[in-house]
Amino acid sequence: MKANYKFKSMPKSFWADVRAIGQENGYTVRGTGELKVPTVKSIEKVYDTLSLDKSNIIVDGQPTQHAINLIDYFQYRADVLHQDVEPNLMDANRAKETFEMLYKRYNPSCPIPMNKQKGVKKAPAYLTSIINILIEANIRGLQCDYDPRKLATITYNDTPVRTLARRVDGAFPSTVNPIALWEIKEYYYTTTFGSRVADGVYETLLDGMELEELHEHENIKVLHYLMVDAHYTWWDCGKSYLCRMIDMLHMGYVDEILFGYEVVDRVPEIVKEWVELYNTKN
Fold this sequence. Notes:
Blueprint: H1 5-8, H2 12-25, H3 40-49, E1 58-59, E2 62-63, H4 65-88, H5 92-106, H6 126-138, E3 153-156, E4 159-163, E5 170-172, E6 180-186, H7 195-218, E7 223-229, H8 231-237, H9 239-250, E8 256-259, H10 262-281
Parallel strand pairs: 6-7, 7-8
Antiparallel strand pairs: 1-2, 3-4, 5-6
Helix pairs in contact: 2-3, 5-6, 6-10, 8-9
């Protein structure tokens, strides 16, 4: 999923409102799990609670364009999560079937990492393995670091200009002057939505902020992706974090987010774009 350009150009003050409204108004309707779409009145209530100047959202009894844009965004976010994201999120069984189908089709030599479970739940890390297989199948023999164990470093004239704070889950072609970096968050066997899962979203946000700063100050663009899966974890327990992901996408901190089965169709297209960029640079 790419950002909707109608909202991607919004200033950071717009996203300040989105976050504040989400915090005060909540993300879902209690008891139903439906995603909330705030009204002008509920936004007014948030402004009253936070002692904010309501002329930003209502003038002479009429909503401002800013308020209309906010409501349009909340409606878009709810629609895209219900219509596009939720159907693509897989459970362990569907992920296993998809992995086995692709493994049989491509007979890969790329890394197939195992999950961190024990006993009967111990198995390949399905989403990561699916992504690795699809990258290898479309990368045309080029180098790729499927499991970086070092920080990504960006150089200019053979001198480091930035080194990221965190290790990422994948880099093309390598962690030195990468064209693309990606994070993978798969939690098929998680039974509760704990801080470890939540932290995964904020880690990606940190990476995105560092890459934004790199682009703004050094004019160096590194593509940044987030790929997530597990229907129960994200949809049943973590809808508010799915909302935050959509916000993060439109704030420009990731270039694209792939949800579950979406990787099967989209990763090959993305990798072809990487290959074209690589060939242009080399």
